[in-house]
Amino acid sequence: MRKTQITIDVELDENHIPENITWNAQDGGVEKEETKATMISVWDDKTMEALRIDLWTKEMPVDQMKMFIHQILVSLGSTYQRATGEEDVAQWLEQIADEFAVKSAIRM
User: Fold this and answer.
1) 100: phi > 0 → left, psi -120 to 50 → alpha, else beta; which?
2) Residue 107: its pLDDT value, please?
3) What does the alpha-carbon distance between residue 72 and residue 96 come to, in Å, rounded to a whole number?
4) Cα separations in angstroms, 42 against 47, 50, 53, 74, 76
5) Of 4, 9, 12, 104, which has the highest C-beta tally within 10 A?
6) CB within 8 A of 74, min separation 6: which ones?
7) What share of the chain is helix, strand, coil (3-state, %, to 5)?
8) Under a CB-based contact definition with an 8 Å cutoff, are residues 99 and 68 in contact?
């Protein structure tokens, strides 16, 4: 069995607010790559719920956060389609992403 590792390092200020976030993925050639935000979800099959960690730095601009969330919504449709084969629901998720883009003023 092969094993790999992805790590996220978070530097916090005195109020425990992220100031710097870096991530590493050896297999992807990523080392100490800076980022302004990260969202991680894991599935707990015992409690049947998603557990999440959402972090962003003080310097993450609101307009970029809107774009980040929009791209996550778009990717959810793609992930859902690959996982379930349900194209109609995947398309509906894409429509939601499009509506979000308009309502959040990142697209007209």
Assistant:
1) alpha
2) 79
3) 11
4) 12, 6, 9, 19, 14
5) 104
6) 94, 97
7) 40, 35, 25
8) no
Q: Which two tokens stand for residue 57?
A: 């730095």
Q: How far apart are CA 14 and CA 53, in angstroms?
A: 20
- For residue 81, how far is the Cα from the chain centroid? 18
What ranges do the domains of the chain cover? 1-58, 61-107
Which residue type sits at 27?
D
How far is residue 103 from each of residues 28, 58, 106, measured CA to CA in Å? Answer: 35, 24, 8
Q: Are 8 and 38 in contact (CB under 8 A)?
A: yes
Parallel/antiparallel/unpaired status of strands 6-12 and 18-25: antiparallel
Q: Give CA–CA dist 64/24, Å, rounded.
A: 22
Over residues 1-26, the pLDDT tens digits come to 999 999 999 999 999 999 999 999 98
Both structure tokens of 76: 């959810």
- Segments of the chain assigned E as strands: 6-12, 18-25, 30-35, 37-44, 49-56
